[in-house]
């Protein structure tokens, strides 16, 4: 039997962030995710994850973004020429919705109405989305895979339908390039990071931002939602990491320790820790309860652009422009941190070096652009081959 997770008395109420009601399709997807989780591999120092590496060839340095969706079925790539391409990673091809005339003949009460809405004749392995007027810097799939967000140098964020393969909304508000965009774990909300030194919280059904998180002294380069959707972490060129409350808009944590621009953020599965990767070639791990720096993971020789935790929270993966992927023993780090005195009057010793490093995997000459753990704890990585 798996251990029952204790609820934190300080955790926010489940209804603190208002969310739309779950659709029937969402409920079916959650059931599917639970079935997949039951087949999940247990990871640890003796059972490292299998890795599936996707290498993008003939890119000529034109690839600027890569993302894999939550259920590992879709791969999105953003290009410097403003084009977005979506590939299916499963045998199922990418279908488009039928036209309005054919949709009117469908029985809306049928159990498989969503399947009947799609046109099998339009099946393709890859789809292209065109609309931006500048390089694509980030992509983010909605949890149900029906929508895609893209952030661009043209100062806009676009919402794309992955059923009609068209742009549905253009969000304007930032006045400089948008570096990052992230969907909330529950969908509906998303957060953006920009060169204008702000991060902004949006809802998909509203054109204007709900919150503007201002306070950074330079570009906000990366953002990440907390697993409970109540908080947003931001990483900046001012070398700080900040944690913001989505409901009040207030800054609740300020974490300093990096020496260069912060490019990647990732919350642990339990939500207690935050990992940040930077151009100083280090991964820093923070305890969010007090904002303490718990560990400095030093082993990479290049900027760290991707971080990911395994689904069970035992493994931390980091991908760098030094063409290596590293696996860290996060469960050991947590155990040692928990054994120390973590009261407010005592800042624990920061663990440094590579004592938690389990394995280093080197690519032939492919910087790591994106990392993703599947529901069964298979580690998926995306890299761009650079000919020497």
TrEMBL record:
GO molecular-function terms, A-Z: RNA polymerase II general transcription initiation factor activity
Q: Which Gene3D superfamilies match?
A: YVTN repeat-like/Quinoprotein amine dehydrogenase
Instruction: Give the CC-aspect GO terms.
Output: ribonucleoprotein complex; transcription factor TFIID complex
Keywords for the protein's UniProt record, in alphabetical order: Nucleus, Repeat, Ribonucleoprotein, Transcription, Transcription regulation, WD repeat
PANTHER family listed in its UniProt record? CANNONBALL-RELATED, TRANSCRIPTION INITIATION FACTOR TFIID
Report the family membership.
Belongs to the WD repeat TAF5 family.
Q: What is this protein called?
A: Transcription initiation factor TFIID subunit 5
According to its UniProt entry, this protein's organism is: Xenopsylla cheopis (Oriental rat flea)
What lineage is this protein's organism placed in?
Eukaryota, Metazoa, Ecdysozoa, Arthropoda, Hexapoda
């Amino acid at each position: 039997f798996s251990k029952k997770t204790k609820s934190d008395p300080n955790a926010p109420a489940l209804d603190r962030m208002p969310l739309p009601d779950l659709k029937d399709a969402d409920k079916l997807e959650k059931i599917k995710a639970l079935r997949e989780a039951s087949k999940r591999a247990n990871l640890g120092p003796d059972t490292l994850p299998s890795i599936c590496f996707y290498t993008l060839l003939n890119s000529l340095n034109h690839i600027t973004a890569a993302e894999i969706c939550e259920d590992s079925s879709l791969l999105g790539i953003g290009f410097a020429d403003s084009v977005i391409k979506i590939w299916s990673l499963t045998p199922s091809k990418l279908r488009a919705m039928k036209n309005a005339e054919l949709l009117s003949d469908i029985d809306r009460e049928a159990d498989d109405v969503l399947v009947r809405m799609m046109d099998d004749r339009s099946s393709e392995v890859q789809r292209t989305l065109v609309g931006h007027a500048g390089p694509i810097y980030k992509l983010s799939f909605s949890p149900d895979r029906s929508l895609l967000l893209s952030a661009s140098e043209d100062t806009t964020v676009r919402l794309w339908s992955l059923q009609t393969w068209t742009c549905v909304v253009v969000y304007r508000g930032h006045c400089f390039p948008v570096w990052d965009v992230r969907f909330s774990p529950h969908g509906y909300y998303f957060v953006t990071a920009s060169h204008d030194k702000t991060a902004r919280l949006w809802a998909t059904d509203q054109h204007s931002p709900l919150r503007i998180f201002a306070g950074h002294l330079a570009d906000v380069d990366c953002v990440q939602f907390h697993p409970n959707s109540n908080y947003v972490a931001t990483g900046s060129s001012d070398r700080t990491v900040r944690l913001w409350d989505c409901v009040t808009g207030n800054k609740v944590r300020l974490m300093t320790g990096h020496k260069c621009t912060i490019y990647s953020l990732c919350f642990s599965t339990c939500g207690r820790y935050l990992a940040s990767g930077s151009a100083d070639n280090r991964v820093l791990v923070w305890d969010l309860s007090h904002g303490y720096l718990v560990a400095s993971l030093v082993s990479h020789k290049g900027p760290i652009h991707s971080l990911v935790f395994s689904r069970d929270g035992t493994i931390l993966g980091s991908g760098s422009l030094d063409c290596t992927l590293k696996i860290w023993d996060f469960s050991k780090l947590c155990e040692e941190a928990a054994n120390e005195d973590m009261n407010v009057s005592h800042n624990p010793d920061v663990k440094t070096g590579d004592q938690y490093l389990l394995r280093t995997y080197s690519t032939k000459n492919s910087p790591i652009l994106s990392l993703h753990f599947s529901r069964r704890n298979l580690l998926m990585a995306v890299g761009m081959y650079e000919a020497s």
